[in-house]
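Technical note accompanying the year-one report. For the benefit of new consortium partners, we illustrate the data format agreed upon in the data management plan: each record pairs a sequence with a structure-token string. No post-processing was applied to the example shown here.
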Amino acid sequence: MSFFHPAEIGYAVRRKLVDMGFAARLLLRLIWSLGATLRRPVLLRDQIHFMGNYSLAIIAVSGTFVGFVMGLQYYYGLQRFGAADSVGMLISLSLVREFGPVLTALLFAGRAGTSLTAEIGLMKAGEQLSAMEMMAVDPVQRILAPRFWAAVIAMPLLAAVFSAVGVMGGWVVGVKMIGIDSGAFWSQMQSGVDVWQDVGNGAIKSVVFGFAVSFIALLQGFEAQPTPEGVALATTRTVVMASLTVLGLDFVLTAMMFSI
């Protein structure tokens, strides 16, 4: 006995293809709207302030504690081999290459991504988007595009803040608490971190993560059912899908960067 009727399988596949096509068209419209978004700098500025400034506190606090933990873990691991002076180098490499972009993207998805989904979903539930269309105003260009490009701009800045405060947290633990020589801490970091390979790769990752997280958040809000339950489910899907996408993209990007 077949558990799935062929018609049901065909309908599910067709529905999934329709959803993928809608998502692809929306992404192309968002990318194409870059010029129009730049011609409205006030909208872009407000969204950068909303997503970047309001996420700054959780990014800074999280980065500080991550730096604390990394300072302790790396010191106790390296002192077995007499390489405790390399703590600064390992902390900075870990942050600018991996932890800075990845953890910032995950925190950004939980803080700003859910806010974007809920905002767009509530606007859809209140028929504000439909009203804009009736007034010949494109909601994608007026509402979604400024939020999309603001997230792409804000993500690398937040990742840089995360890495910077993480390094300072590692310095506090390694130098002030444990007693590593401050000169050795900074000199090892300076000699071991390459601006283009390490910092540049981390910046590329953060930009890609900004694209992915913001697009998923806006797509889920734009496709949400116009009910309280629909908006809540869309917000949950944003966190889950954005987190898994960030982790998967991190592996792909890391493999590509190390293979070049």
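Partners are asked to follow this layout when depositing records. The CA atoms of residues 171 and 177 lie 9 Å apart.
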